[in-house]
Design goal:
- The complex is a heterodimer of chains A (246) and B (320).
- In chain A, helix 2 crosses helix 5 and helix 3 crosses helix 4.
- The termini of chain A are far apart.
- Chain A is 27% helix and 30% strand.
- Chain A has 246 residues and is an alpha/beta fold.
- In chain A, the strands form two sheets. In chain A, strands 9-8-7-10-6-1-4-5-11 form a nine-stranded mixed sheet, sandwiched between helices.
- Chain A has a single domain, classed as HUPs (Rossmann fold), CATH 3.40.50.
- Chain B is built from seven helices and 16 strands.
- Chain B has two domains: 169 residues, Rossmann fold (3-Layer(aba) Sandwich), CATH 3.40.50.620; 126 residues, TPP-binding domain (Rossmann fold, 3-Layer(aba) Sandwich), CATH 3.40.50.1220.
- In chain B, the strands form three sheets. In chain B, strands 5-9-4-1-2-3-10 form a seven-stranded parallel sheet, with helices on both faces. Chain B has a five-stranded parallel sheet with strand order 13-12-14-15-16.
- Classes of the chains: A alpha/beta (246), B alpha/beta (320).
- Bound molecules: flavin-adenine dinucleotide and adenosine monophosphate.
């Protein structure tokens, strides 16, 4: 199995978010960045499990600047064999997708893994774009994946339930919770990651047709109206007459 | 020029999220000075009704209802060419999200997912907003491709009757053959799927055990709400995984979210803080959830919840 896992980096959910004065850019000062959990816990770990089971190798790909290399090293420490870094800031989903597709066209991957979405913009856009650019079948939100030769059986999360599908390699898949269990890198993994190769490649130019023009902070909540536990009638009254939701 | 809305019907009939997408397409078309056209694929009971919500034309492509993103994307792309769409609209559903990127990539188009505003026209581009960073901010996107694509947040655009039923016309496209075989489809029947639910009653570890969920379900039933839970509750299998909301679970945007015995950790809030009205019941006055709530009751949920259910029952019977 020759597997590619695309990894991204996002601010930790618990980080405070600030923007520059013009509200056009995230102020990264003091922001704690992590590997996107869906990429790390589910896509990457399942890819490594498949390699352990069936042989082959796992390459991780990241579109980002050199300052993001600790995230790539972590993926190598968890068990990926090698890495590719496309040396450019990820401008938007199509930009990232075109870099991934350009790389994937030069290799014959059996499976291209993604996380189901990044937890900062929750776009869920890149995997679908890559599958189109490569004209490959795509299964989104996979929560289980088993391989039998080159035939894959995937359970995927859909509204209020699950769908089970079958398809053959090569394909693109995005991983949701359930696909695997998080692995913490051990000492040996961390030592070995230092000797694993990270190939740095230049980015292809892509016309920017999706741009963030401005950020805004949400309006402050008005404050919570407290109602006595002895007077739940009042809650129902407020929901009906004030909030008008019931 | 037109706005093309994909109205999904994977189970054979038009879903509520598809009606919302038409309502959005109607508003978008007005802003852009054009018409809203609906596209359905396969069996689609309720397709003609889309006319009522603002589609000037409703097209159907005869194909399988089994979802294959590659096949569906190819059909929608051909339809988009035929109706000269400049904006393609999807629901922010598992299938909508799987298709939006494919269409944007095919047309070198702009893409914004889970938008919460109708387009504002800015020259030849459009601007839309969405929530980002777990609800800690909003971002305004400018989309300037030849065809742009959006998925729309659930429960945000209400279908309103603005016209009459439409005649469904067949549209012929060359169908690609699928490479994904659907083996089974298991969805909860009889209840609204959580991501589409207008009201949600959610409970956490404060429930003490799965045997106590009866009071949660009774409250949900009287409201016609879906049920949800916090992550630890799903992790220990007190509740099914598809009910888990939050950063690692489902992100929802209902009109009313009632949280019972949930502390309000940031990772939980990430999936629910875009709800319109939040009610929290917790016996700890210091529970962080109160800071994100609109209405709060400090009290024992085993005492308070049945009382809320009773009070709503009285309200409902007074209304009838
Ligand atoms: C990376 C990461 C991702 C995560 N993703 C998610 C996610 O997607 N969704 C999620 O929910 N969590 C997520 N978590 C976990 C999250 O941090 C919290 O641990 C979790 O939300 C707590 O669940 P809870 O509120 O049900 O339980 P607790 O925190 O134990 O809270 C129980 C609450 O019930 C109250 N209570 C107890 N008894 C009663 C009573 N009789 N009456 C009324 N109130 C009572 C208590 O005061 C308390 O506030 C994530 C954590 C991490 C680290
Ligand atoms: N900069 C990036 N480099 C590599 N992969 C990425 C990058 N951004 C996003 N991805 C992948 O695409 C998935 C979905 O991202 P998104 O479409 O932005 O929600 C992520 O979970 C990653 O697997």
């Amino acid at each position: 199995m020759k597997i590619l896992v695309c990894i991204s980096q996002t601010p930790d959910t618990t980080t405070k978010i600030k923007f520059n004065g013009e509200l056009t850019q995230l102020d990264a000062y003091g922001v704690q960045f992590i590997m996107n959990p869906y990429d790390e816990w589910y896509a990457l770990v399942r890819a490594i499990e498949l390699k352990e089971q069936l042989g082959g190798d796992v390459t991780v790909l990241h579109v980002g600047l050199a300052s993001n290399e600790p995230t790539i090293r972590k993926a190598l420490a968890i068990g990926a064999d090698s890495a590719v870094r496309v040396d450019a800031e990820a401008q938007n989903a199509l930009f990232v997708a075109k870099q991934v597709a350009a790389h994937a066209k030069t290799e014959n991957y059996d499976i291209i893994f993604f996380g189901k979405e990044t937890i900062d913009y929750n776009g869920s856009e890149v995997p679908s774009m890559v599958s189109e650019l490569l004209d490959l079948p795509f299964v989104s939100y996979g929560s289980e994946l088993t391989m039998n030769g080159n035939l894959a059986t995937v359970a995927r999360d859909i509204e209020g339930g699950k769908e089970t599908v079958e398809l053959s390699t090569p394909f693109v898949i995005s991983a949701a919770k359930g696909m695997a269990e998080q692995r913490i890198p051990n000492m040996k993994g961390i030592m070995m990651s230092k000797t694993k190769p990270i190939k740095v490649v230049p980015a292809q130019a892509v016309a920017a047709v999706t741009t963030i023009v401005k950020y805004e902070y949400p309006a402050e909540k008005k404050g919570c109206k407290m109602i006595s536990a002895d007077n739940v009638e009042e809650l129902v009254n407020l929901l009906h007459n004030e909030a008008k939701v019931i | 020029m037109s706005v093309l809305v994909f109205a999904e019907s994977l189970t054979g009939s038009i879903k509520k999220s598809a009606q919302e997408a038409i309502a959005y397409g109607y508003q978008a078309a007005k802003a852009m000075g054009t018409d809203c056209v609906a596209l359905t694929i396969g069996n689609a009971d309720g397709a003609s009704e889309l006319g009522k919500y603002g589609a000037t034309k409703v097209y159907n492509v005869a194909a399988s209802n089994s979802f294959d993103a590659q096949v569906y994307a190819s059909i929608i792309a051909q339809a988009a060419e035929q109706v000269s769409a400049t904006l393609i609209v999807f629901a922010h559903s598992s299938s909508g999200k799987s298709l939006a990127g494919r269409l944007a990539a095919r047309f070198d188009g702009g893409l914004c997912s889970a938008v919460i505003t109708t387009p504002e026209v800015s020259g030849s581009a459009i601007r839309v907003r969405k929530g980002v960073f777990s609800g800690k901010a909003y971002a305004s996107y400018e989309l300037s491709g030849p065809k742009n694509v959006v998925t729309i947040a659930a429960n945000t655009f209400r279908p309103e009757v603005v016209g009459a039923d439409a005649v469904v016309e067949n549209l012929t496209v060359s169908a690609a053959s699928g490479r994904v075989t659907v083996k089974s489809l298991n969805t909860v029947t009889g209840t609204v799927p959580l991501p589409e639910a207008d009201m949600v009653v959610s409970a956490g570890r404060g429930m003490k055990g799965p045997e106590n969920w009866g009071i949660v379900e009774e409250l949900a039933n009287i409201l016609g709400a879906a049920t949800a839970c916090s992550r630890p509750v799903a992790d220990v299998h007190w509740r099914p995984h598809h009910e888990h909301v939050g950063q690692t679970g489902v992100a929802i945007r209902p009109t009313l979210y009632i949280a019972l015995g949930i502390s309000g950790a940031i990772q939980h809030l990430a999936g629910v803080n875009q709800s319109k009205v939040i009610v929290v019941v917790n016996n700890d006055p210091e529970a962080p959830f109160f800071k994100a709530a609109d209405y709060g009751i400090v009290g024992d949920l085993f005492d308070v919840v049945p009382k809320i259910t009773d009070a709503i029952r009285r309200l409902k019977s007074a209304q009838n």
